[in-house]
Amino acid sequence: MRETLDAIRPPDEEAMAAARARHDRLTKPAGSLGALEELSIRLAGLAGTCPPPLPAPAAVAVFAGDHGVHAQRVSPWPQEVTVQMVANYLAGGAVVNAFAREVGAGVHVVDVGVAADLDPAPGLIVAKVRPGTDDLAVGPAMSEADARAAIEAGIRVADRLVADGARILIAGDMGIANTTPAAALIAAFTGRDAAEVTGRGTGIDDYTLQLKTSVVRTALRRLPADPDPLRVLAEVGGLEHAAIAGFMLAAAAHRVPLIVDGVNTLAGALVAAALHPGVTAALVAGHRSVEPGATAALAHLGLDPLIDLHMRLGEGTGAVLALPIVAAAVRVLHEVATFDSAGVTEK
Ligand SMILES: Cc1cc2ncn([C@H]3O[C@H](COP(=O)(O)O)[C@@H](O)[C@H]3O)c2cc1C
Ligand SMILES: O=C(O)c1cccnc1
């Protein structure tokens, strides 16, 4: 982890200035591409060159883990749905697979903490730290050593996908009950109240939402004032959130952009940003999930999401849909003619 944190560099101001200047010479009114101009300038700063590389090929990693807090009935779904959905991803049958085929991204599944043994399969990366967390309602979800091991597992996944040629990474999650630790992490890192950031997840009723909020609030009380990020993660987090944080830190270290999805990957992003604030330079917010914690986390990270389709699924689905927008933003800097080259008169 140290090596990855030490490799994260600030954005290259020169490349950003070059991208800004280039935008003003392209055959369009200056600023007319709005947020896409800012995005492409950020990506130039991340890559350290203008234009930045086209973000292809894209690799999605769906980090899967189980949660002891499931015992508190915070999710209406049985825990075995986690392992069943992992099988579904590997068979290509989930929403994230359909979306990934649409945009030409590869899907990998990372078992960082599923509470069942998985048979080896193409596309499955086995990095199990432990078979699920403990119940965060009654004590720490995991040890700090386990939290660190899961972060390191996520780092290794990004290292491997980038070594295999990925030029953009997409983070996804699967883990029944994981919107409970996500809410707790978001409350802990943003300072918001549990009620502001706890949402309905897969679709819970009012009674369950109250129970879930009180589970989050009670768990947060165990945290000391101003806790170390690793302690927060161990106390109230999940194995997939930890691995996603590592995945993001390694993307930043490799200067490869990473598209963030919904509330679980945003919780991972808050962990990563607490470990190294420079990580946000590599992060692109794919979409705004309906979960209230997503909006709180986006505001805290200073990220503006590219799309808002009222989605609340996870798996990386919202992030995958944003990929063509990110690619289009970069392609402008590669391909659009200048006023000079196209012979278009300026105002
Ligand atoms: C069939 C199915 C597919 C999913 N894909 C993502 N999630 C999403 O829902 C879960 C979190 O919601 P909660 O905290 O309410 O359990 C996670 O697994 C998340 O990825 C799914 C959930 C289900 C049931
Ligand atoms: O916003 C998300 O990513 C989300 C919402 C509900 C359930 N799982 C994930």
UniProtKB/TrEMBL annotation:
Keyword Transferase: yes
GO biological process: cobalamin biosynthetic process
E.C. code: 2.4.2.21
Reaction equations catalysed: 5,6-dimethylbenzimidazole + nicotinate beta-D-ribonucleotide = alpha-ribazole 5'-phosphate + nicotinate + H(+)
Pathway terms, separated by semicolons: Nucleoside biosynthesis; alpha-ribazole biosynthesis; alpha-ribazole from 5,6-dimethylbenzimidazole: step 1/2
Family note: Belongs to the CobT family.
NCBIfam families for the chain: cobT_DBIPRT (TIGR03160), PRK00105.1 (NF000996)
Protein name: Nicotinate-nucleotide--dimethylbenzimidazole phosphoribosyltransferase
